[in-house]
Design goal:
binds heme C, 14 helices, signal, Multihaem_cyt_sf, single chain, Doubled CXXCH motif domain-containing protein, disordered N terminus
Length: about 260
Amino acid sequence: MTLGIRLLSPLLLSMVLMAIGQVFASDITDKDYDRASWHTIHNKPAIDNADDEQCLSCHQEIVSRKVLFESPAGVKASEVLAWYQTLTTYEGQQDTFHRRHLVTPLAQELMDLKCNTCHQGNDLREEATIPPDHSKQDKTLRKSVNPDVCLMCHGANPYKLMGLPKPWPESRALFQNDCLLCHINIRTNRHQVNFLKANAIEKAAKKDPDICYGCHGGRQWYRIPYPYPRHAWKGMSSTTPEWAKDRPTESEPRFRIENQQAAK
Ligand code: HEC
Ligand code: HEC
Ligand code: HEC
Ligand code: HEC
Ligand code: HEC
């Protein structure tokens, strides 16, 4: 009898331990990876009110991952700089796309981008295949980022519309290399959106005139400029120029400061 219990108890103990182990390990079973990858937070409407902490609880690598020190072929990251990475506004070592927009010193000083400023997911009822096609593993509906978001900061400088004789690199000397020469009075009601730090931008631009150009032509990835909303400003003329007739007069609703959406 006693022998039986002695033999049984290690078995019982290991069974209890296995059960406990299963409870703790349940976060990392295949089924749960699947469940996480289909988490409703990736799509509308939940993504609109997601805060960064929620996304980062599963995607920490987005802000921690670093670029390779050296490519597999042996080329060092420090030896392959793009032209803009040689400018004074580009600080530090090469870094990942996400870190350059979320955690580098310049990003933190001037911007307040959230995951959902860029990631908007999709409305699955509109864009997912019906019936669902499970052989599709690429999860592209979660990635959806509207390139118009990028265009706001990486578009061409609208020098013609501003009445400048030539593109900024050629005409900047005429204007003391300072956008504020005009913009101290023109379109002064600007950057009141939940992903920019409006006051910090003005402060930084007073010290370094290239700050403005940095988001309005200096880091241009597109051939076209962004058609910005045209907020009324103090001293604005009552006649609207032809090019501005169709412009909205307020920022996109989801970017407005008073809106929860995309805010922390
Ligand atoms: C519960 C955990 C969890 C949360 C919370 C979460 N995700 Fe995910 N996400 C996943 C998993 C798992 C995948 C699938 C990853 C894969 O297969 O590489 C995924 C996929 C993605 C992808 C596609 C990745 C690729 O390589 O194609 C994007 C983009 C993404 N998530 C963004 C977000 C954003 C933005 C948020 C916050 C609004 C968020 N996720 C919240 C777990 C999560
Ligand atoms: C400046 C816009 C922007 C911001 C802010 C942003 N992302 Fe992304 N993200 C992108 C773009 C663009 C891609 C590439 C999409 C593609 O490959 O189709 C991407 C890709 C991803 C991917 C899949 C590829 C990878 O690198 O693993 C994940 C996961 C992801 N983002 C999560 C996040 C999370 C979490 C946050 C907030 C902490 C965030 N993103 C903030 C624009 C952004
Ligand atoms: C609110 C303004 C803003 C938005 C929106 C924005 N960017 Fe940027 N982007 C910047 C700034 C500022 C830098 C420079 C950051 C630095 O040097 O630390 C930058 C840097 C970059 C770089 C250079 C990264 C490197 O390390 O060389 C790329 C590429 C880029 N952005 C692409 C994009 C794409 C694609 C999107 C849209 C998904 C986007 N950006 C949205 C402001 C923005
Ligand atoms: C000679 C004066 C002048 C200088 C210098 C100048 N701007 Fe402008 N800017 C204007 C005028 C005028 C407008 C149009 C005002 C209106 O909406 O009627 C304008 C409009 C803009 C717009 C809005 C464009 C749109 O499509 O709504 C941006 C952005 C802008 N300027 C950025 C800059 C930046 C950045 C610099 C420096 C690199 C700069 N400006 C230098 C006069 C100037
Ligand atoms: C970090 C990127 C960034 C920097 C730096 C920046 N801008 Fe902008 N600017 C933007 C974005 C994004 C918008 C559109 C915001 C919105 O949707 O209302 C904008 C809008 C504008 C507009 C349109 C204003 C309106 O009527 O709504 C003007 C003019 C402008 N910027 C001029 C400037 C000047 C001058 C500076 C330097 C003092 C500057 N920008 C610095 C990103 C930037």
